Amino acid sequence: MAFAFTDATTDTTSFSTALELRRKKRPTDFFFGAYYFFGSTKESGGSRATTENRLLGRTRIDRDLTDRSFAFGQVSAEYDEIQRLSLRTDPVAGVGYRFVAREKLTISGRSGPGYVYQRYFGGDTEDYFTILFGGDLEADLPYGSKFRWSAEYLPAVPDWKDNYLIRTTADWTMPISGWLDFKIAVFDTYNNQPPPGTDRNSFTTTAGVSFRF
Q: How many whole angstroms separate alpha carbon 7 and alpha carbon 24?
C-alpha cells in the first residue's frame, strides 16, 4: 500500500495497493497478483483530472519437469483508463529452464505460444498469436531484503518487428519489523502499436509499506 498527497497551487493525489499470493511446494509453484494504481491532479481554479487509473491481475503456475526445467501456464488481465485500454489479456503456456538455481539466487528463462487480445475504448479490438520470451530473477540480499525482476516480450507471430508488447516488473523489499516491510515496485508496459492519442510506454513506480501474513 502506498499513498501520496500534495496540497499547493497544484493538488495531487496518488494511491496504489496490491495483493500477492504465492505457494511453493515442489513440484509446483503458484503465484497470483492483483494491483491497482490511481492518481489525480488539480490546478488552482481548475477541475480535477485523472492521471492514472490502472488495474492489473496476473496468475502463473510452474510445475517442475526436472531439477532445472519446468512447464508453466500463465494469464494476465489489464485495464488502463489513461491508455484507453478496456481489456488486455494474454494467456500463455510453455516451458522454462533455471540457469541459476541456488538457495539465494534464481535466474530462469521461459518461452511458449500464447494469444494476445486487446480491446480499447470505443470498441476497437486487436488480437494475435504470439510466442512469449521471458526471464525472471529472484535474489535474497543482505539484511533480509529481497529483489525480484521479470521481463516478457510478446511479438505478433505474423509481424514480429512492428507489433509487440514488452512488459517489465521489478520490486525490492526491505524488512522493517516482523510482518511489516518497505517496498519499492516498478511496472512498465511498452505497446509498439498503441491506440491514437496515447504513448507507447506506460510506466509506474511506487514506494510504500507491505504486510506479510
A: 44
